[in-house]
## 1
Amino acid sequence: MTALAEECSDILRGEHRQVRDLLLGAIEAAQEGSPVRMRAPLGEIAALTGPHFRYEEEALYPLLTSIFKPEYVEHLLGAHDDAIAAARRLVELAGQRSLSDGEAREAVGPLRGILPHVSDCDGLSIMVELLDEPDVQVILDTRERSLVAGLDLLEWADRARSRPTLREPAAQGGAAGAAEGLPAVRV
């Protein structure tokens, strides 16, 4: 593995750990019925995942089509669709004064649902090792541009994402991606 591939893998792993830990904090707050406590981790997740999803979709996933079947890459993109759709509902729930038991369960489902995507994507970091160094540099350069743009998940999805979000919150059945895009300012 080149030093550049190792750097990229370390970055991916670090970001996935951060999202995992923030998701667990948001789950705990939702289980307590506290939208106020949900806001901080959801806002941090939003700030992290806007740039993260962007460089995954614009650089990493297209490069992985040389390794994986197109259906798997489409599955990864679908998980992002789910995350974006769920985030929209979680923004509403986190904006309330309190959560009913049913609303707390509604929030916990998608928050837990995104955890498998986080762990699956963390496994992609070892696939980066198989890419040529110029391709790894493309990922890192795209990541840097995404960080400079500073769009949270919903801002990126609404203003800059090249793929339309294909799923609506109700179609998710409580799975996938919920907290990955809740802007701290708007919650």
## 2
Amino acid sequence: MSAEPRLLVRQVRGMAGRPWTQRLVLKGLGLRGPGSEVVVDNARAIRGMIRKVLHMVTVAEVADVAASTAAAPAPRKSPSAKAPLAKAPAAPKAAKAAAAKAPAAKAAAAKAPAAKSSSAKPGAEKVKVAGDPAKKVKS
């Protein structure tokens, strides 16, 4: 590890109403919202990124990473990370097979009219719409 000090960057203002370029800079620094903080290298490119969003962050020099992580609070875990969700019991195979056959779907397919061939003239046949007997639609 280098002897060069690192930078502790803490976001103090939100991204709402800011230009998209500033949002991308905050994302590139690893900041996710007000109160989040990261320790980054003291490189020229990083300092340039910080300069673009200096009005939204605070910066402090840190001697080493171990000291900065001890001072910073531990990240909170999301409630979903506490315990994995239990899987729903699998349906019996017989029920799945019966659902796959679906006799009602076969009957509906048998009653459906055959597809019209593309050789017929468009507008040659008009069909009435079920809701309005006066309205006619091309099929």
## 3
Amino acid sequence: MAVYWLSVKHLALQLQQSPCRLSSCQRRVRQRRNEIVYNPPMNQNPTPDRPRMPPGYGVGDPQYGFEPIQWSWVVERMTDARNYWVATARADGGPHLSPVWGLWHDDAFHFFTDPDSLKARNIRRDPRAVVHLESGDEVVIMEGTLEPASATPDIVSSYESKYGISLGDAPEGLYRLKLTKALAWLESDFPKTATRWRF
């Protein structure tokens, strides 16, 4: 009994001295739970402006004018696309680019990857990423951070319906792109339509 009491006192002392006291740990757990389960809605009509490019590209030159692309156009292409390219950073800082299947759901891009894949290992170390579509004629580029997401029945059903596959009972490795910036333009009238959104 004396040994047990000393062990309890020692544990209590460690908790008091630990930089991660109970209240702060609880806050971190809640924050982590919110990242995985709750995805705040994004502005469905963000304000467009001009991307920053060197003068030689003509962006911002009055002679070309500015006809911003509508955000709904971006959403339509992200929704209809079959293949997406995801760029992450390797441990040595080098780039890693990989094509994936994905889904535009609740105003955000989602995709599955094996938790042991190079992409997943890169994301756990550095969640910053770039996602873009295949077309160079109708360009969509998105930048942000990739967060673990909950594979809700709605997401799983939409994903399986889109690609004609089964993800099984408990699919793992779902990520959601939390946007910081998006770019889009039409090659046919660049730089007139070169558009940027910041989040």
## 4
Amino acid sequence: METQLQVEAEPQAQQPAQAPAPAKAWSLPTRLAFRFGFVYLVLYSFPGPLAFLPGADSVFGWYFTATQKVVIFAGAHVLHLGQPVQYVPTGSGDTMHDYIQNLLILVIAGIGMVVWSVLD
């Protein structure tokens, strides 16, 4: 005779699924750095690769014209440079026009960071 053991599985109480722990909030310096970096990157990259699309000249032409005028104005009236700033497309980014444009992007990114932080 064989003895058979019958083992019944005990019903296990189902535990409710635990929600994931809430993400730790970013500190103020981290939020400010992210906001500044994001605004700077968007401004620096715009219109970026979009400018190479067919017909983009008609869409973004106003942006390039306005940017050049603002940079020349800032060089003459804000920075009080001794000689006028000229836009010369060299492709290197190593011109006075490009330096002033990057300075303006930094300033606008700082303003954007402050506005974003106030609205948050």
